[in-house]
Amino acid sequence: MKVILCLEEKLGYCFLGKRLSQDQNLRQNLKQLLHSEKVYMNAYSYALYKDYFADALVDEHFLDKAKDHYVVIENVSLSSYQDQIDEYVIYEWNRSYPATLFFSSTWLSSFELVETMEFSGTSHEKITRRIYRKESSYETER
């Protein structure tokens, strides 16, 4: 599974069931990155991403069905899926928001940073996109 997350500076990604970012440039950047890849998400995320991923597979149990595909994570916990994740696409900015769901940096212990890029957002001056791949899968791609 390939996880897409938006994180604030304390690694939070959701506050009481509400998303932390609605940045239009971020969604456009993600669309360019994924091209025509299959993307899974729940109805909550689809409400924000439908103009960019009209053909997304929308299901409340998307994490159980995505397998090797991309998933947009906004308001669900990832803790019980760590062994199924092969890649993280993480969008970060240097603002702090209250959060109730957090990403744990320890989840990246077996991942390698393979790409970093920065761009301007519509609601954030600077957004950083980092892509991490599981070290074993990255080694086989080299």
Give an overview of the whole structure.
The protein is α/β, with parallel strands linked by helices. The protein has a single domain (2-141), classed as Dihydrofolate Reductase, subunit A (3-Layer(aba) Sandwich). The chain is 20% helix and 32% strand. The strands form two sheets. Strands 5-4-6-1-7-10-9 form a seven-stranded mixed beta sheet. Strand 9 (111-119) and strand 10 form a beta hairpin. The relative contact order is 0.26.
Given this structure, which CATH class is correct? Alpha Beta
| Series of H and E elements | EEEHEHEHEEEEEH
Radius of gyration: 14 Å
Q: Report how far apart the termini are.
A: 20 Å
Percent of residues in helices comes to 10-25%
Q: Tell me about the biggest sheet?
A: 7 strands, mixed
Going by CATH, the homologous superfamily would be Dihydrofolate Reductase, subunit A
Give the overall shape: globular
Nearest-integer average pLDDT: 92
Flag low-confidence runs. Answer: none
Strand content: 25-35%
Would you report the number of β strands?
Answer: 10
Q: Count the helices. How many?
A: 4
Kindly summarize this structure in a few lines:
Helices cover about 20% and strands about 30% of the residues. The protein has helices spanning about 25-35, 45-50, 60-65, 135-140, and strands at about 1-5, 10-15, 20, 40, 55-60, 70, 85-90, 100, 110-120, 125-135.
Task: Name some characteristics of this structure.
about 140 residues, alpha/beta, Dihydrofolate Reductase, subunit A, three-stranded antiparallel sheet, seven-stranded mixed sheet
